[in-house]
Design goal:
Layout: E1 40-43, E2 48-54, E3 67-76, E4 81-84, H1 85-88, E5 92-95, H2 103-109, E6 117-122, E7 143-153, E8 155-157, E9 164-170, E10 183-192, E11 197-207, H3 215-221, E12 229-234, E13 261-271, E14 273-275, E15 282-288, E16 301-309, E17 315-319, E18 326-329, H4 337-343, E19 351-356, E20 367-368, E21 373-374, E22 380-390, H5 400-419, H6 423-435, H7 445-468, H8 472-485, H9 490-502, H10 506-519, H11 524-564
Antiparallel strand pairs: 1-2, 2-6, 3-4, 3-5, 3-7, 6-7, 8-9, 9-12, 10-11, 10-13, 12-13, 14-15, 15-19, 16-17, 16-18, 16-22, 19-22, 20-21
Helix pairs in contact: 5-6, 5-7, 6-7, 7-8, 7-9, 8-9, 9-10, 9-11, 10-11
Length: about 575
């Protein structure tokens, strides 16, 4: 065949409709990619046949959108050769599944492995049909192609709509990819489809969610690994859209409206920025990864180096940079809450920058520090390195007696915090105390009795914290746990009644108060709560009476209106309630 037969297209048989065929899933025709060497097997239900001549390597096969490289020889059934890439000594490249070749090629090649050579027998409906390809291919011709799949380049549709197509040039390291809060360092080059340079940057750093240059760049880097280099074909909706781009001078060229561009990106490195708190008010940017997987826990003793700064760069504290690192115990309020929380996420040797909102820093009051005054409501920033740490022992590391002793100590710490009105921290301390004795199957009888007393005490005290924090449902749960263990516990009945009153479960509140008074008739606190309950009941009864009274008045007015109109028919008036009722 003539030398210009280098793309075996099938005309209208392979035109693409409005949907982009590129996807992550391999669309292999029914019949699969399997088969033994020398055995002919039908692929799909349209008459395509495949005989493997040489087995390929591995299990992977190309998918729609991948750029494949093949050698081929095309013949008619009588053996007449009409084309061969071998004769030209040049492999043929095309993108699979886009209708660039006849349907038989698209369907057949996606069943092949790298290095595989197969003979495909392609019926006219999957080739050139009734028209043929004069003068070498007659109408309704069945064709045979001996195809060797040399390699392919993965092309991925990262936008899922064909708007950004990615081809990896150089594989990256590891498996991690940047996320929205992270800061990335990239090199990029942007060109038009004709090769004209649009923009080039040797190295630029930006936050992923904020983006750089055009919307596609932010989406692109989120798919990349460290050290990876890739080419992205970017449609106008992810580039410069209907407006295009004009750099206004310099060596960079204009991007016309509605123009597809090509961006080559290398992800040099990135700094992971994690949200330490769910409200995003404490952020940690890792400058240097730490060792291993272990991290400090509550109660751990840590050694750090840290420098605290204001937004303008003013240093207000510098600790641990002499011979001795700065040491503190986590969850003991020896540092601000933001540092406590952040250090628990760090590994030994990790270096990071912390951004801390005033809620987790120095709050709404001016604070005098080592080297400067921190104004009220100021964000603060810390350069911090975790030198080493000694974790507080976990439950499973303690003997039964040590568990009881540790539980008692944590409970006392909770009591101290409660007295200082640190209710949330006290609640957590009681929960921690409980964790050491909650499962007592290995305890002896005396230890079980001690653990029972601790459980009751911790749950009762935690219920008091939850009342202060207005978490009334949790108060009910904690008091119920106590009453399950000690049904005559007056404090549990009293606190559960308080929670029921706030939840407007007045009947349940009265039951608890009556039972508490049966057990301890002279208890002054319970009597006062009973008085409060009666007032609440009276208040709600008054509101109910007012509510229903308004309804009855409305109904009386309606009846009076109906009687005054005599026999005149009227549409039924819907009942309304006064908004002040």
């Amino acid at each position: 065949m003539e030398d210009d037969f280098d793309i075996p297209t099938a005309g209208k048989l392979n035109e693409i409709d409005g949907e982009d065929p590129i996807g992550d899933e391999m669309d292999v025709p029914e019949g699969g990619a399997g088969g033994k060497v020398g055995e002919e097997k039908e692929i799909g239900k349209n008459g395509l046949k495949k005989k493997i001549l040489n087995e390929g390597a591995g299990w992977d096969t190309p998918i729609n959108g991948d750029e494949v490289e093949v050698h081929y020889v095309g013949s008619l059934l009588d053996g007449t050769r009409f084309d061969s890439s071998l004769d030209r000594e040049l492999p043929f490249k095309f993108k699979l599944g886009l209708g660039h070749v006849i349907q038989g090629w698209d369907d057949g090649i996606k069943t092949m492995k790298k290095g595989e050579k197969s003979l495909f027998t392609i019926p006219p409906t999957l080739a050139y049909g009734e028209s043929g390809s004069p003068p070498t291919i007659p109408p309704n011709a069945t064709l045979q192609f001996e195809i060797e799949l040399l390699s392919w380049t993965k092309v991925k549709d990262i936008s899922k709509d064909g708007g950004i197509l990615k081809t990896i040039v150089t594989e990256g390291q590891n498996w991690q990819t940047p996320k929205d809060p992270d800061e990335v360092l990239v090199k990029y080059e942007v060109r038009l489809e004709d090769g004209s340079l649009v923009s080039k940057s040797e190295e630029v750093e930006f936050t992923v969610k904020d983006g750089c240059f055009c919307p596609a760049l932010s989406k692109a880097v989120k798919t990349m690994k460290k050290g990876e280099k890739a080419v992205f074909i970017v449609k106008p909706q992810y580039g410069f859209g209907e407006n295009g781009w004009d750099p206004s001078g310099g060596d960079e060229c204009v991007v016309p409206p509605n123009t597809t561009i090509q961006i080559t990106v290398e992800l040099v490195s990135w700094k992971i920025v994690s949200e330490v708190t769910t409200d995003k008010k404490v952020l940690k940017k890792i400058l240097k990864e730490g060792e291993g997987y272990d991290r400090p826990n509550d109660g751990a003793i840590v050694q750090v180096k840290l420098v605290g700064k204001l937004e303008d760069g003013t240093v207000f504290v510098n600790k641990g940079h002499n011979e001795t690192p700065f040491e503190f115990k986590i969850d003991e309020e020896q540092v601000i809450d933001g540092i406590d929380r952040s250090v628990k996420t760090m590994k030994k040797g990790e270096v990071a920058v912390l951004t801390i909102h005033p809620e987790y820093g120095f709050g709404s009051i001016e604070s005098h520090q080592e080297s400067a005054i921190i104004p009220a409501n100021s964000n603060v920033y810390y350069d911090i390195e975790l030198i080493s740490f000694e974790k507080e022992k976990d439950t499973w590391e303690l003997s039964t007696q040590e568990k009881i002793e540790t539980s008692g100590r944590k409970k006392e710490e909770g009591n101290t915090l409660f007295k200082r009105q640190k209710y949330e921290r006290a609640s957590k301390r009681y929960e921690k105390a409980l964790s050491f004795v909650e499962y007592d199957s290995t305890f002896n009888d005396d230890e079980k009795q001690e653990s029972k007393i601790l459980k009751i005490s911790c749950n009762l005290n935690n219920a008091a914290c939850k009342l202060k924090l207005k978490d009334y449902k949790q108060t009910v749960k904690l008091c119920t746990k106590v009453l399950d263990a000690d049904s005559k516990n007056v404090k549990a009945l009293y606190r559960r009644a308080q929670a029921y009153i706030q939840l407007v479960d007045l009947d349940l509140a009265e039951m608890d108060i009556r039972k508490a008074l049966e057990i301890d008739p002279k208890n002054r606190d319970v009597k006062l709560e009973y008085k409060l309950l009666k007032e609440k009941v009276k208040e709600y009864n008054k509101k109910d009476a007012q509510f229903y009274g308004n309804i009855f008045r409305k109904m009386n007015k309606l009846e009076h209106l109906q009687s005054s109109t005599g026999a005149r028919k009227q549409e039924r008036v819907p009942m309304t309630i006064d908004s002040n009722a």
